[in-house]
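Hmm, how's this folded?
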Amino acid sequence: MMGFIRERLGRGGRKTGGFLLLEALVAVSIMAFVLSVLPAGVVLSRKSVQKATDVVGARLVAEAVLTNEFSVPYLVPGTNSGTLDGYEWSTLVRESQFLQEAYPSRQWVPYDVIIQVPVPNGPMVTLQTIRVGRSS
C-alpha cells in the first residue's frame, strides 16, 4: 500500500520526503469543509443550551415564588407580580368554586394558584396548583 509521503531524489542524490500537491489540496479541502460545517453546529447547540437554561431558570423562579409567597395560612385572592433573579413573575389566586362545592368546609377554602414566568425568547412557564387556606 502506498503512503502519503513520497520519497524523491533531491540534489546530490539524497532522498527527500514530502506530499504531492494533489494530496495537500485534498487535505486542505477536507479541512475547509469540516471547519465550515462545525461553527453552525456549535452555534445551534449553544442556542439550544441557552434556551433550556432559561426555561429551567424560569421554572425554579416559579417554584421559589410558590414557596415564598404562598406559605401563609390565609391566602388572599387576587393578582401579584414581581421580579426574581432577573425573571418577571405574576400570580393569580382565586377561590376554587368546583372544589368548594365538592368538599364544603367552614374552616378551609381551596384556592387555585397560577404562577406565570415568561422566558426571554421562549415559552411562558406556568405553574398551577391548589392551596388550602383558612377561611376568614
